[in-house]
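> forwarded from #structure-qc
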């Protein structure tokens, strides 16, 4: 047995044990007949997958159709829970292998901080690191979306099981301890089995806020400060210049949850205020806990060790009068800091009790200054080691999180801003119809109003509910800046940005509430356009050039350090133009934006609106960042972490730490070691770009002809997928569509992608590629194949594109997709559309294998192959069950049990596929 097989056997052992314990729980709860029925289905599914046994497939289908509603629900729950347990085992196995790699002293792995820093030093660019960190900014941004199907209670159960598995890897147990661990695992799985998978009520925005903040408890609050410390230590070990140096705050974790209003009417000014207060309470509670622990550790007696005068003064100001600590200045000082912070919590959160005579902190900088006094005293008195423990982490946490925890972004659709501005102009200038003006007229009018000291709003006027709500949101931001600091809400994102007037409209609204000052041309938030559709991506660079040419707008940028952020929409561009064209137009837009920003000497920061699935821009973050075109990173990058990806990446502290490291490592390498990796090799670059343009044109036509140009496709989509049932799930606070319609144009990208994933077709992640390659080879019979292979070998962008598509195809199953197609009532429509999809699927598989040289999918990724091999026997039956349940439901059996069964199957399939939404 080879080494990798030995290592993977540990994973197989974990999966077998977890499966056995789940089986015990099922048998004890449901009885032997139910267990045997579920086990029979499992064995048939394994036999079919392992041996491609058609007889097993037929038996599996018969067995599933024979199940009663109750038996179907039991099976669905069982297979769903197994997928959750498999996820835990895989995550723990990745941790196990990473730790084994580090313990063995093996060379740093690609994507690790040590690998990235080592490459920089080896390349002789160590001097550039200091400049890099001074200007760097790396920020994953958590967003709430309805692909996060798990309840928090389920996540808690999973984390408890993960801790027990981790304990076995880290501790050499006695036989008794091993037995106790297995018993605890069994109890954890019984608890999981008895915990409800589905929510009984729809999530509120504040529920989503609480869910998002739970990852700070598990991971972010502790692991992010540790990352800084680890990196500082790593640099100091390589270069004495970094000894005692403290890095700037180059990494923060942001959030949209509670600030994203695009299509979500439930995000109001009061919700924004509640979100910010909840975030403040979370971080202050963390600081208070850390201060208590720190005080218990720093029991240093003054008679045994001196302290600095500032520290002594801090201790004297403390209200701590305990005779037991009279000669313990550090404890007394920390007691005083704790008391002031308690007062701060009362002011900011309305919780706790403020001691008499204690002055709350006005800002996080004051808290940090007091902690610095403690740190400097320890260092100056020979106790550097004590300063590098909990105190070091707490000081870094205060620097990074402040009193607001996470920078909260605002987002709203440009159409909403347009209507509000139109209403304000109509009220101030009766007869003016803003919406009837062309773009140049709008720009002229907006600039004149921005230059004017007057306000359009009047306290005596009556405005629509929409206008009142939006203005209240901006007023709440101004309040937040005073209360928590300007870093609490630093960004305003404009969805569907398509013009310069879209930017100026937001500037005008900011002026109305005092967040933009006309006389000084200062603005307190970043105005960020989000270019989403294919047309918007193509127009984006010209829009920014036009804006930069306006003296007023350029003045606003001067107040923001001459920096402009631009957000790129992966999800909607994919829904608009398909997988290949979306990726290519995003890449081209970045190249053109880099050129425009360089021309106007404006610093560019790109915000990548990536989803969890490949159909929404997902895929490995490290490879995605390295595949950006030259100049697109520049030490700064933001990217969204959405839906179930947040749980997968950040629920486990070690996995979370690794994912944070990956983002930093990739940003360092892309900025300081671009070499030729970020664009096609010069020798073939022009040919590669031309080939990609040709491929994209064909793929776009194929995709749009199917999705938007085929009569009845909308009906096919709604009948052959679970989109209608997804829309009814209690898995998010916002509706599935932006408008009350079934049109694909109005549908959000998230349920669009999730629906195709559920039926195992994954259409948004590959459709059009096969046609594009076929047409390219026909047009270039002599060298077409060689050009495409060269692009795959030499161009990271194309390599990453095909790697992601490979993963999507590996998780697809055209035979299962065919079962869903049978749900379409119109036989002619069904056969016409599915025949095209099946043909394109076959062509795409052939094209991928031709270019990559693979004989089978995921041949270059044995870890993914293994994961798929372990999972499919448990996902396949869920798909068959889901089809059967949908048939029954749509034929009229629409009781609560049927609806529950469908929702359980959606949950289970999503858990099994992981990055499905």
């Amino acid at each position: 047995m080879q080494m990798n097989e030995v290592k993977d056997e540990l994973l197989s052992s974990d999966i077998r044990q977890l499966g056995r314990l789940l089986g015990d729980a099922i048998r004890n709860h449901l009885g032997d007949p139910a267990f045997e029925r579920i086990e029979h289905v499992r064995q048939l599914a394994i036999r079919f997958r392992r041996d491609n046994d058609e007889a097993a497939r037929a038996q599996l289908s018969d067995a599933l159709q024979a199940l009663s509603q109750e038996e179907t629900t039991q099976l669905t729950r069982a297979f769903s829970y197994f997928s959750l347990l498999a996820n835990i085992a895989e995550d723990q196995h990745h941790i196990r292998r990473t730790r084994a790699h580090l313990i063995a002293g093996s060379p740093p792995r690609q994507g690790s901080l040590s690998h990235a820093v080592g490459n920089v030093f080896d390349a002789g660019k160590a001097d550039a690191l200091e400049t890099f960190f001074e200007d760097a900014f790396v920020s994953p941004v958590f967003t709430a979306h309805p692909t996060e199907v798990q309840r928090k209670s389920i996540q808690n159960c999973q984390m408890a099981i993960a801790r027990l598995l981790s304990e076995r890897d880290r501790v050499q147990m006695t036989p008794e301890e091993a037995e106790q661990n297995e018993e605890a695992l069994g109890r954890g799985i019984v608890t999981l089995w008895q915990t409800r998978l589905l929510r009984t009520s729809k999530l509120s925005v504040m529920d989503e806020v609480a869910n998002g903040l739970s990852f700070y408890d598990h991971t972010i609050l502790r692991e992010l400060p540790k990352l800084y410390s680890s990196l500082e230590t790593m640099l100091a070990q390589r270069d004495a210049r970094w000894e005692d140096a403290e890095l700037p705050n180059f990494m923060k974790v942001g959030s949209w949850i509670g600030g994203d209003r695009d299509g979500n009417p439930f995000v109001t000014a009061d919700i924004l205020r509640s979100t910010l207060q909840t975030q403040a309470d979370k971080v202050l509670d963390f600081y208070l806990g850390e201060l208590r622990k720190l005080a218990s550790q720093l029991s240093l007696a003054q008679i045994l060790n001196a302290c600095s005068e500032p520290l002594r003064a801090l201790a004297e100001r403390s209200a701590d009068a305990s005779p037991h600590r009279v000669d313990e200045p550090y404890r007394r000082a920390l007691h005083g800091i704790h008391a002031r912070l308690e007062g701060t919590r009362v002011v900011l959160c309305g919780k706790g009790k403020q001691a008499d005579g204690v002055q709350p902190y006005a800002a996080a900088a004051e808290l940090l200054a007091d902690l610095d006094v403690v740190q400097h005293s320890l260092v100056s008195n020979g106790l550097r080691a004590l300063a590098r423990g909990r105190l070091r982490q707490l000081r870094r946490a205060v620097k990074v999180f402040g009193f607001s925890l996470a920078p909260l972004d605002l987002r709203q659709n440009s159409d909403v801003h347009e209507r509000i501005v139109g209403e304000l102009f109509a009220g101030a200038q009766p007869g003016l119809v803003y919406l009837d003006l062309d773009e140049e007229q709008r720009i002229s009018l907006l600039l004149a109003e921005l230059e004017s000291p007057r306000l359009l709003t009047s306290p005596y006027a009556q405005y629509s509910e929409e206008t009142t709500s939006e203005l209240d949101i901006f007023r709440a931001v101004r309040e937040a800046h005073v209360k928590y600091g300007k870093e609490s809400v630093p960004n305003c994102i404009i969805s569907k940005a398509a013009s310069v007037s879209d930017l100026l409209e937001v500037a005008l609204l900011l002026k109305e509430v005092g967040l933009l000052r006309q006389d000084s041309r200062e603005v307190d938030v970043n105005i960020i356009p989000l270019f989403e559709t294919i047309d918007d991506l193509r127009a984006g660079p010209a829009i920014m050039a036009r804006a930069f040419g306006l003296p007023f707008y350029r003045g606003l940028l001067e107040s923001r350090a001459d920096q402009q952020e631009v957000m790129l929409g992966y999800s909607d561009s994919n829904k608009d133009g398909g997988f290949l064209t979306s990726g290519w137009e995003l890449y081209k837009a970045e190249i053109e934006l880099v050129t425009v920003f360089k021309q106007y000497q404006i610093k560019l920061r790109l915000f990548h609106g990536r989803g969890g699935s490949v159909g929404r821009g997902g895929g490995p973050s490290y490879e995605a960042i390295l595949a950006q075109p030259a100049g697109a990173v520049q030490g700064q990058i933001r990217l969204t972490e959405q839906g179930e990806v947040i749980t997968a990446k950040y629920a486990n502290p070690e996995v979370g730490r690794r994912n944070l490291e990956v983002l930093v490592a990739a940003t360092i390498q892309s900025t300081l070691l671009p070499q030729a990796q970020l664009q096609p090799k010069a020798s073939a670059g022009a040919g590669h770009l031309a080939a990609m343009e040709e491929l994209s044109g064909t793929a776009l036509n194929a995709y749009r002809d199917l999705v938007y140009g085929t009569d009845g496709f909308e009906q096919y989509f709604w009948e052959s997928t679970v989109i209608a049932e997804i829309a009814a799930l209690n898995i998010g606070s916002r509706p599935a569509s932006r408008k009350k319609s079934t049109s694909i144009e109005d549908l959000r990208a998230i349920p669009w992608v999730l629906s195709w994933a559920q039926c195992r077709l994954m259409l948004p992640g590959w459709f059009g590629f096969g046609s594009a390659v076929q047409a390219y080879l026909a047009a270039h019979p002599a060298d077409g194949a060689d050009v495409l292979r060269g692009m795959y070998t030499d161009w990271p962008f194309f390599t990453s594109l095909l790697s992601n598509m490979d993963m999507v195809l590996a998780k697809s199953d055209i035979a299962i997709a065919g079962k869903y197609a049978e749900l379409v009532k119109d036989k002619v429509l069904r056969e016409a559309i599915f025949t095209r999809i099946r043909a394109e699927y076959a062509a795409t598989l052939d094209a991928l294998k031709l270019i990559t040289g693979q004989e089978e999918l995921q041949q270059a990724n044995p870890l993914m192959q293994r994961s798929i091999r372990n999972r499919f026997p448990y996902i396949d039956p869920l798909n068959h069950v889901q089809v059967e349940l949908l048939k029954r439901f749509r034929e009229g059996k629409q009781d609560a049990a049927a609806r529950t069964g469908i929702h359980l199957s959606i949950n289970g399939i999503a858990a099994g596929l992981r990055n499905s939404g």
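QC bot note: Confidence is low (pLDDT under 50) at residues 614-618. The chain has 37 helices and ten strands.
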